[in-house]
Specification:
Length: about 475
């Protein structure tokens, strides 16, 4: 028996060698190159197109070489906001659903991982027949144990596991990206509702001033020293201010409900907070290459490239011969009690499978695998360009909003002076009510624009932080 097994093993080895030599000229096994950032990435952000040709760098950096160096919440000086972000991460149903699906994918990873390990199955069968020569009906009970093992000679099964593992890692990065995006949305929703509260306070202030002017004018008219036109104009502006205040209240309620939904709460519109602006530090992006490798979407794209390369390699190796070893142990008897004392029989089988003709299916699948890998690399490049664009846009907008905030701050100060000046002139009888109302409207308008500019600047800083790879 040992001699027979040795001969069988020698035959299997010779067949594998001959098949591999024969296929060497027919198949090109995928070379597992590591995905890298594309060439031509500038050393700093804001580099002009003319100078980027001289300052561009070629990098083969991988995501695992550069860990995240800062946290989004470290930029915010607000305990209230940090608590809200933590609540959203714990209770938001979309994030919880993504986490459950990721956990499900991790469990399914054991499928491809088990393909390279021996498989053991046990079985029991019971039959009743009359196939013996005397036609007597008999019961036959049989218990078996089967072992099978596909030897991974070429690493095909290892490549399939690598592809599945990289897909899971890509989904892990997708979850990190979703968490970062949720945190950014919570912060921005919090900023919007805070801006709405400030705008409501400004509109309330305007309404109070206009109501006061209207009261003065109605008394002046009743005393015979004012005109009906002045009172009508003031009353018109008061009613418009009431409508604007109502619109601001509606916007505030909508912003609060949006924030409550992100937190996983019932949207009652009852979230309360102050009107003071938070201290949100300006993120300082690192070099473009470091920024890119800190972003979860770039890391996910890297993982998907690796998965596609591994899958292409596995499809190439599917055309090579396969070796399978199997064995079966069994006992049988006419009664269940006979099985315990029955003789144990065994069968050992070694087999070689060589695909020869499948109408080009395996060849086309291998070609398709390489094209999918090329497509994944192009997807990586597209994500890189989008990421660089997001950082550049956020940096440009930060500069423009800084100019706007400074100009509107000066304008707000000057408009307050103008309102006080025309109020004094009106009280002294040196100017009419229309001039005072115009000055007040200008003051309120500038304050509202300044409030919105400050909110936009804070919101853009959150976008800049996310674009620069500053996650949770």
């Amino acid at each position: 028996m040992k001699e027979t097994i040795h001969k069988l093993n020698a035959f299997l080895g010779l067949w594998v060698i001959i098949s591999a030599v024969w296929l060497q000229g027919c198949i090109a096994t995928a070379s597992r190159g590591a995905a890298a950032l594309p060439d031509g990435i500038p050393e700093t952000f804001g580099t002009s197109a003319e100078s980027s040709a001289n300052t561009s760098v070629t990098t083969s950096s991988r995501p695992e070489t550069l860990p995240i160096t800062s946290r989004l919440l470290d930029l915010i000086d607000s305990g209230e906001l940090k608590a809200l972000v933590d609540e959203a991460l714990k209770n938001n149903p979309d994030i919880k659903a993504l986490a459950f699906r990721l956990q499900s994918q991790r469990y399914l990873l054991s499928g491809p991982g088990s393909q390279s390990m021996p498989k053991v199955d046990a079985g029991f069968s019971s039959t009743r027949n009359n196939q013996e020569y005397n036609s007597d009906t008999r019961n036959i009970h049989k218990i078996t144990a089967k072992v099978s093992w596909e030897i991974d000679l070429w690493g095909r099964l290892a490549d399939e596991y690598t592809a599945a593992d990289q897909e899971v890692q890509a989904k892990e990065q997708d979850l990190l990206k979703a968490r970062d995006a949720l945190a950014a949305r919570v912060i921005q929703a919090w900023i919007r509702q805070k801006a709405a509260r400030r705008a409501k306070a400004i509109e309330t202030q305007r309404l109070a001033v206009l109501q006061q002017i209207e009261d003065v004018l109605i008394h002046r008219y009743r005393d015979g020293i004012g005109s009906l036109d002045e009172y009508a104009a003031a009353r018109t502006r008061t009613q418009v201010a009431k409508a604007d205040l109502s619109a601001q209240q509606a916007d505030l309620a909508d912003f609060i409900r949006t924030l409550e939904l992100l937190l996983g709460r019932y949207p009652q519109g009852q979230l309360t907070c102050g009107r003071e602006w938070p201290a949100l530090a300006l993120p300082e992006p690192d070099t473009p290459a470091a920024v890119l490798l800190n972003r979860p979407d770039i890391r996910a794209a890297f993982a998907r490239v690796d998965a596609a390369l591994a899958q292409a390699s596995a499809k190439d190796k599917a055309r090579l011969p396969g070796v399978t070893l199997s064995a079966e142990l069994f006992r049988s008897g006419t009664t269940l009690s006979d099985i315990g004392s029955a003789t144990t029989y065994w069968v050992f089988l070694g087999s070689v499978f060589q695909p020869l003709f499948q109408s080009g299916r395996l060849r086309d699948e291998a070609r398709a695998g390489h094209l999918e890998a090329d497509a994944a690399i192009q997807d990586l490049h597209a994500v890189v360009l989008q990421a660089l664009s997001e950082v550049e846009n956020a940096l440009t907008l930060e500069n423009q909003l800084a100019v706007q905030a400074k100009a509107l701050g000066i304008a707000a100060t000057e408009s307050e002076k103008s309102s006080r000046y025309f109020a004094d002139r009106y009280r002294q009888g040196l100017d009419n009510i229309q001039t005072l109302l115009i000055a007040k409207e200008q003051e309120i308008s500038v304050k509202l624009r300044l409030n919105q500019a400050l909110a936009d600047r804070l919101s853009n800083r959150v976008n800049l932080a996310i674009a620069a790879g500053t996650g949770l």
